[in-house]
Amino acid sequence: MATDGAGPDGSELSEGLGAVARTARGFELLEFQDRYGTPCSLQASSLAEHEKPGTSAVWLGPDDAAPKVLASEARGLGVDTAERTGWVPYPIPPGVSLTTRMHLDREQVAALILHLQRWLDNDSFAAPNLHIYSAAMQPATDFTDSNMEPPYRKRYTPGQMLRCECCNRKHPARDVVVQCYYDGWRFWCAPERGCKHPRLIEAKRRREFRNRSRGQKKRWAVVRHNA
Ligand SMILES: [Zn+2]
């Protein structure tokens, strides 16, 4: 994970969010402020699904909901204030609970990291669009997914209807080819079947491959590494 490196202003980001402290009960605690100066924290949860304390989940987010009310509406909501404009604190009765921090288990943390890293690398939470010709086309009636460990062989019966990416229509497996990616299978009309004609496919393939930049290939390699 690339957490090191210079920030936009040249500052080093390798220090992270600050020094790691501990709560009174011994759980790790990282206190920081968000972009607007709101006090936030990352804290190891006492949730004990895993045996080692503090490794099952984390709390992340603002420490305090800091509810406010428009000064102009404060009186109507029972808040006594001399302010006439802007926001004034809205006192919450002791018996009222507000959720501020997220409680994330290990799987959710991993997923969040993935989305945030994609955003840093590619400006998007989503995986970059996979190039449709970067995985081999195999007949849907007999293909092998080599992304799986061990490789997984699948044979659809020739009459099985499969929805194709190219035309968003279902076609029988005998007329369909499949590409296997790490995140799923993509079905396409086979050449000269369904909506496809081989000359059109080849022309598009050549055009798309030419247009594929070195940067695109590099980004894809990074994401695949992180995934
Ligand atoms: Zn089609």
Structure description:
- The longest helix has 17 residues, at 106-122.
- A five-stranded antiparallel beta sheet has the order 1-2-3-4-7. A three-stranded antiparallel beta sheet has the order 8-13-14, with no helix packed on it. The chain has a two-stranded antiparallel sheet with strand order 5-6.
- Helices cover 21% and strands 25% of the residues.
- With 227 residues, it is α+β, with helices and mostly antiparallel strands.
Properties at a glance:
single chain; 227 residues; alpha+beta; 5-stranded antiparallel sheet; 3-stranded antiparallel sheet; 21% helix; disordered N terminus; binds zinc ion
Number of extended strands: 14
Please summarize the sheet with the most strands. Answer: 5 strands, antiparallel
Element-by-element helix/strand order: EEEEEHEEHEEEEEEEHH
Tally of alpha and pi helices: 4
The radius of gyration is: 27 Å
Class derived from helix and strand content: alpha+beta
Low-confidence stretches: 1-14
Average pLDDT figure: 83
Strand order of the largest sheet: 1-2-3-4-7
Beta percentage is 25-35%
Fraction of residues in H or I helices:
10-25%
Bound molecules: zinc ion
Q: Provide the domain count.
A: 3
Distance between the termini: 11 Å
Rough outline: elongated
